[in-house]
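Example protein was shown:

_____
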Amino acid sequence: MANSKVRYVLILGALTAMGPLCTDFYLPSLPAIASVLNASTSTSQLTLTSALIGLGAGQLLWGPASDRLGRVKPLLVSLVLFLLASVWCTFAHDIGQLIIARFIQGIAGAGGAVLARAIARDRYYGHELTRFFAVLMVVNGLAPIVAPVLGGALLSFMNWKGLFLALSVVSAVLLLVSFYGLEETWSKKTTAPGEISGVIKSFVLIGSDWKFIGLCLTQGFMMAGMFAYIGASSYVLQKIYALTPQAFSLCFAINGLGLILFSLVGAELSGHYGEDRILRSALIFAIVAAVALFICGYLSFSLPFILVALFFAISINSIICTIISSLAMQRQGDNAGSASACLGSAMFILGGISVPLTGLGGISINTMTIIILVCYIIAALLYKSLVLDL
């Protein structure tokens, strides 16, 4: 049983890392992509935006499919599609092709995240599910640490196309591991394959649960703030503060380590004080950290002060998202795949919207920090009005 849990942690953690790999791995190469493909900064950012929107839209495809066809088959299809899209990215000749290929790569990458959450919900419940999500966050947190560092290191001897070729290899490995290492956990009897009424009914039931919707939107706006950081930080730290791609990758990795540490702390605290209490405290902490980050940027503090504030403003997301994922999934046990899809789609679609907003009027430390702060405030207000007050 212990060996089985370890196997599932490693495989599901790797699958949930498909999203961060899709978004973070190539970040150090964004300025180079803009230069090589003769694209503006804002246009090159669309390669990230299209992937985020694909990750959000893909949730709505793979989640309902898994509630009707099982977890493993849709997962394998998504991994094959990710492999093909990564190859297309490798051979893209202009920014338009890359944007389209990244959108498809995002749709495919969504399968890993949404199905990993659904499989975890099939196997665990209650605080055990919260603890399992925390462990997944730890494994998943390695991706933001390893991805940009590895991407920056690879850029020292290959161009940006080589990064997408490496993603092709990763997806091929995950395809084999999932095929041989995962068992079907879905047991609910489905209706006729061609009938969509069951899917529609699932989304109607989920949409009528306002607390679930509140949790989705709270997590979505928190992650929108983090995606604003992901989309703008490479330009802010490399262009404005003159960091090398390798130094930027190191800063990005430290924040990834913060996500892991905060996830472990959050899981431990929620076991002692309860998920709701820790979630409320974490939301307040997030706003305070975002305000501090905005002040540091607005008053032109030196880079060390900005990096410290950024560390806390980003790391707190792991506590909030771990607890919200557990609470939301527990409310929709009979529709785990569709519920997971709603959680993921809100996160990535809102993130896809927040990224280009950081480029309005030119990317700067101020535009990045303002978007982060606004997203966090909206998240807290939605949690209070749709979850606490209902």
The radius of gyration is 20 Å. Confidence is low (pLDDT under 50) at residues 189-195. The chain has one domain: 2-182+203-388. The chain has 15 helices and no strands.
